[in-house]
């Protein structure tokens, strides 16, 4: 996996990926029609939407959303509260019907029953049968998934062990805290080695230890080749684990790309240079915008590939470069910037 | 089919753990115990001749089972009305519908599980009550099995109605509408009986329409018919009592029973369609 903060990726502007996807007809995805399911299923992306649209009365919840989530990647779906993230998740899982547009999930149309066997889902509103024990909840889902009965015990033990609930396996869910119920939900979502795991705000009720555990689980899912669709408004969470993200606001994707693409062209460098005259930077505007902060000189919007050229130029001018601190805009800052630009 | 059975099994397990069966059992023991005492007093009353006693016991049994049919209807509505709406509101249903299961299978599974509970309750109370009445008075209804079947069918209709409402409206509203519909159906039946007795066509029509729209009263009268011994029927016609809401003139026709089945099917179809189309 490339490091999330890699600055070596080409810059991606607002919605560029969206536009690139737009002309593709879903029936043409993977080079085959929906009729030849098997070839599409293996060749197609994990999620592919074209102009997906959802309207509730006069309210437009999702507006012409086009995006692609490749197989095996951890895809962060980011947006402020009420942006339409959960609505998109529900559309992808067939829990809600789109008002327009098309989408394929694991190569199959929305709501396809067999495809659901390969999807794990942790809803934002995670509640389970309070009168069942954690083990019984897992076994219920094994049964619904059509897992062989002989595997139920092992499946339950593995899932509960993964989410740290094995010791409470035989306690009723009604006695669990919110955090424990969310852990259980994660265990349920991991059953049956799903090809796609959809996590809707998976750490909303967890303490820092739980959040760390969830990140580990997500990394393990990626290692075994599962796709993770991570719906979150916790940007730090996305920055830790996501390969690519889409930022959604008012039902529309306003930016899509890898974290490097999203943040890379907005990196800046902090310099401490001695031995040059006053206003020495005035001739170096081609590298970026300059300003001073105490003894530091800040270069904004510099292409990370040109930092070495800049240092070379400063040395050539006779400067003594004492410190070069590359900084990258945080996802939060970039996120706020994207929203404020709308 | 296996998914339907999975949901039915889950429904029954949850009902048992909610102590629903324990509550049913406790209520049954209390009401059957009290009725045993009452029937014993009635059948051994010095003030009654044996002929009068032979009429009084079946009449009292009809009244007792009318009370039980109300309890059954209330129970059916109470257990069915939260089964979908509450799970949607709480989010419990979300994790289930995301699995490879049709919403139709979820609804039919819940219906099956609740119907099994209701059938068990109806069969248990009827068997116990008939045994007690036989023990203290020696009276056995002409067809105790069919009485149980019609009482269960009455409850099953309300269960289906409440379940269908539960796919769209909150639990308490679905429950209230279900019970109110049962009451209105019974009242329409009483009005129809009065219309027949007093020969007022408009009132008779109310009864006929009521039994068509919600066949619970029609099924209750079918149960009454199979509770009535011939001595009671003879006495009823001899005395010319034509407006007794606790008397059935005849067995339900096949056409009416067919309509009841159609009604059940239409309502189940409506419930399934409603849940399938509901945005979650």
How large is the count of helical segments of chain A? Answer: 11
Distance between the termini of chain A: 32 Å
CATH fold assignment of the largest domain in chain A? Rossmann fold
Unreliable stretches of chain B (pLDDT < 50, length at least 5) are none
What is the residue-mean pLDDT of chain B, rounded to a whole number?
A: 89
What's the CATH superfamily of the largest domain in chain A, by name? Answer: P-loop containing nucleotide triphosphate hydrolases
Helix fraction bin of chain A: 25-40%
Helix tally of chain B equals 12
Output the CATH class name of the largest domain in chain A.
Alpha Beta
Distance between the termini of chain B: 24 Å
Low-pLDDT residue spans of chain A = 1-41
Query: What is the H/E order of chain B?
Result: HHHHHHHHHHHH
Question: What integer value in Å does the Rg of chain B equal?
Answer: 20 Å
What is the CA-based Rg of chain A, rounded?
24 Å
Overall number of strands of chain B: 0
Global structural class of chain A: alpha/beta
How are the secondary structure elements laid out?
The complex is a heterodimer of chains A (342) and B (280).
Chain A: H1 16-21, H2 37-43, E1 47-56, E2 59-69, E3 74-78, H3 85-92, E4 100-105, E5 108-109, E6 119-122, H4 134-145, H5 152-162, H6 178-189, E7 196-200, H7 208-223, E8 227-232, H8 235-241, E9 244-249, E10 252-258, H9 259-264, E11 268-274, E12 289-293, E13 296-300, H10 307-316, E14 320-327, H11 331-341
Helix pairs in contact in A: 4-5, 5-6
Chain B: H1 2-17, H2 20-43, H3 50-80, H4 85-90, H5 92-97, H6 103-137, H7 144-166, H8 171-198, H9 201-213, H10 216-225, H11 230-238, H12 254-277
Helix pairs in contact in B: 1-6, 2-3, 2-6, 3-6, 3-7, 3-8, 6-7, 6-12, 7-8, 7-10, 7-12, 8-9
